[in-house]
Amino acid sequence: MERTPDGTPVGVDDPYAVAGVCDHLTDDGRCRFALTRAGDDPGFAAARRVDGYACHVGPDDAWRRCPHYRSTTTGRECHRCGLEEVRIAHDDARPLVEEHHLSYGRASGEDDVDETADAGDADEAADAGPHEITVALCRWCHTKVHKSFARIDDAANPDPEAIAERESRLSKEQSESAFETASERFDVSE
């Protein structure tokens, strides 16, 4: 099983099997990284420009070939147990659903690309190295994955504490959405 830099398990053997579409891929199949951050990797951007900025990997190919692949979650539901997030405006409570890293991006200072390599070599890279890949997990599943051998693809039900916390937030949300006149909310007697 893959592990974090601290040595705790991340809950998968192959993060790419769970990973989604690259965050840099536009709706029309172009590479947003090459379009907007060409100065960060001029050789990569030049190779993409020659191809009309088309993604050189493609959604059906192995994402690990791209040196700039990144798949981060925007999920509001736990990938493992299905618990849905409930956030209350202006409340500092800890979120129910958190971002869980399956793989980590390069450490700062590491080069994404070999400067001596031909610009077309990016297409031929067998393994571009570590990429940032995340999924959404509730706090309870997140703890189980890091502190035991729980896997993110286990058939799991939400923890009873998680359900209680979600229901508490839902009832608070409902009570706040009820209409009350100002005279009902505030004592206006003089």
Give the arrangement of secondary structure elements.
Blueprint: H1 15-18, H2 32-36, H3 42-50, E1 70-71, E2 97-103, H4 121-124, E3 132-138, H5 139-147, H6 160-177, H7 182-185
Parallel strand pairs: 1-3
Antiparallel strand pairs: 2-3
Quick recap of the structure?
With 190 residues, the protein is α+β, with helices and mostly antiparallel strands. The chain has helices at 15-18, 32-36, 42-50, 121-124, 139-147, 160-177, 182-185; strands spanning 70-71, 97-103, 132-138. It has seven helices and three strands.
Folded structure, characterized:
With 190 residues, the protein is α+β, with helices and mostly antiparallel strands. It has one domain. 28% of the residues lie in helices and 8% in strands. The protein has seven helices and three strands, in the order αααββαβααα. It has helices spanning 15-18, 32-36, 42-50, 121-124, 139-147, 160-177, 182-185; strands spanning 70-71, 97-103, 132-138. A three-stranded mixed beta sheet has the order 1-3-2. It is flat, with a radius of gyration of 22 Å. Residues 107-128 have low confidence and may be disordered.
Order of helices and strands: HHHEEHEHHH
- Arithmetic mean pLDDT: 82
What's the main sheet like?
A: 3 strands, mixed
Taken from the alpha-carbon principal axes, the silhouette is flat
Oligomer: single chain
Strand order of the largest sheet: 1-3-2
Number of strands: 3
Radius of gyration: 22 Å
Count of separate DSSP helical elements: 7
Question: Structural class given helices, strands, pairing?
Answer: alpha+beta
The helicity comes to 25-40%
Low-confidence stretches: 107-128
